[in-house]
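Hi V.,

Quick status before I head out on leave. The structure for the redesign project is tokenized and pasted below; the design run finished overnight.
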């Protein structure tokens, strides 16, 4: 497994701190370094400690999260956490990885962390996290065969398991590497596990997955 992502929580609300601390504890790829109550405390801590990711509140006393972010010469990756959506555009202009609107679920938190992992080039992101049946599953990307959309849910078909979770196919597509391809409005397949094309279908692990009309040209280009 790759080394953990070292996190710094910067938030002045004790309840928000506790939620983030629990989410970090429940995520195998993360390690909490410190929790700071304001940006000035965070600045002092970062002067002596290496941080990969800041989970940064915006509305704080003394110095706002946005002002703190603007003041940094070479900031680590940042995920903004706030109860207000007014700063979303400004946050993305500052190249934050994601913008979490409080209160956010553990599933939404994991989506943000998947984006963080994709922005860290020295790490081999070889798994995703999904929540189902009141459990959080860590699924190896190498084990995923295909993913099927079922309304507001997706079913992940892997080598040794099948997991249905409340998620969109679009979000799943964003978390997966280029070895996966969306071939239909309802399907994403692992190209590494695809056996062959048959008319307008891809055969993968003895399953016949249809290729949507808008995806056919791209599929042919990838297979050629």
């Amino acid at each position: 497994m790759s080394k953990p992502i070292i996190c710094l929580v910067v938030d002045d609300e004790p309840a928000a701190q506790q939620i983030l601390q629990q989410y970090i504890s429940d995520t195998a790829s993360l390690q909490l370094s410190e929790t700071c109550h304001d940006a000035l405390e965070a600045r002092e801590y970062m002067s002596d400690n290496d941080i990969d990711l800041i989970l940064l509140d915006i509305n704080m006393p003394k110095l706002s999260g946005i002002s703190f972010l603007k003041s940094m010469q070479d900031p680590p990756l940042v995920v903004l956490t706030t109860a207000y959506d007014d700063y979303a555009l400004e946050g993305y202009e500052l190249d934050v990885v994601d913008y979490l609107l409080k209160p956010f679920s553990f599933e939404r938190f994991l989506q943000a962390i998947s984006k963080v992992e994709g922005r860290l080039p020295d790490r081999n992101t070889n798994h995703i996290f999904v929540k189902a049946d009141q459990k959080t599953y860590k699924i190896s990307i190498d084990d995923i065969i295909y993913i099927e959309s079922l309304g507001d849910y997706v079913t992940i078909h892997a080598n040794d398991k099948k997991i249905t979770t409340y998620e969109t196919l679009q979000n799943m597509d964003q978390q997966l590497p280029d070895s996966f391809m969306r071939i239909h409005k309802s399907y994403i397949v692992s190209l590494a596990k695809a056996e062959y094309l048959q008319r307008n279908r891809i055969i993968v692990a003895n399953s016949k997955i249809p290729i949507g009309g808008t995806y056919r040209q791209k599929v042919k280009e990838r297979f050629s």
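Above is the designed sequence. The mean pLDDT is 87.

G. will cover questions while I'm gone.

Best,
W.
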